[in-house]
Amino acid sequence: MISINHISRIYENGASKTYALRDINFEIEPNKVTIILGPSGSGKSTTLNILGGMDRPTSGEVFYNQRLISNDSDSALTAYRRKIVGFVFQFYNLVSNLTVRENIAIAAKLNGNRLLQVDELIKKVGLEHRQNNFPDQLSGGEMQRVAIARALAKEPALLLCDEPTGALDSQTSQKIFQLLKSARNKKTAVVIVTHDAEIAPIGDRIVHIKDGKVSKIINNPHPLEVS
Ligand code: ADP
Ligand code: ADP
């Protein structure tokens, strides 16, 4: 679905240059969870921004379904982002004066999905009992469930998750990872950026990055199930 071919990203600030990514290659496939694992400063966010169409590589190519997107115009990249990509962040980004149900319904409506789907989404993330609560009445794990439901309202081909459990305890994190894993299907690839090596075995593919380079790629035919 996505091929990353020899991409590099150099940030230039006046006379100083930062080589955030150096000649990275990997593939993202539907029906798989790809984990991008690396320490702080290794280039994970830069990779995610390029995958999400928020940034372009300095050199190299990104293909989406065989189409070169890394040279697209801003408006074409925005269209790609709106149509193809769902985002889940570390800090949820919920609308605080809307209920759980309303947060999800707005996303479903913006994405042109029928309203019935809201119930399916709420059920999928296990928040039936919380649907009329406001974000400040929820636990961190519950807030992340809302954010995931909202991202899934788009039925995105690519679900990009940036440290989705960075603010959660380890047991809650495992549940959230399991939920994200259940979002992968024939049409949807899930990509999770994390520095948490402990959770990496839940992925179908683990891309290790270090100092802006891919140090290894592990294909994991028997991903860990957590409960
Ligand atoms: P990670 O997400 O793994 O923490 P990043 O992709 O944010 O890593 O950063 C990779 C490298 O690029 C780091 O050295 C970081 O300081 C640098 N970097 C990131 N964004 C910028 C920017 N806008 N300008 C300059 N350097 C940046
Ligand atoms: P809008 O349709 O409001 O103009 P944007 O084009 O800014 O939206 O964003 C499209 C999608 O990209 C949205 O789903 C948004 O959540 C996501 N997005 C925008 N900016 C960022 C960012 N800096 N990092 C991650 N995701 C972003």
TrEMBL record:
Key words, A-Z: ATP-binding, Nucleotide-binding, Transport
Annotated InterPro entries: AAA+_ATPase (IPR003593), ABC_transporter-like_ATP-bd (IPR003439), ABC_transporter-like_CS (IPR017871), MacB-like_ATP-bd (IPR017911), P-loop_NTPase (IPR027417)
GO molecular function, one term: ATP binding
Chain ranges of the ABC transporter domain: 2-227
SMART domains hit by this protein: AAA
Homology family: Belongs to the ABC transporter superfamily.
PANTHER family with a match to the protein in the record: ABC TRANSPORTER ATP-BINDING PROTEIN MG467-RELATED, LIPOPROTEIN-RELEASING SYSTEM ATP-BINDING PROTEIN LOLD
Protein name: ABC transporter ATP-binding protein
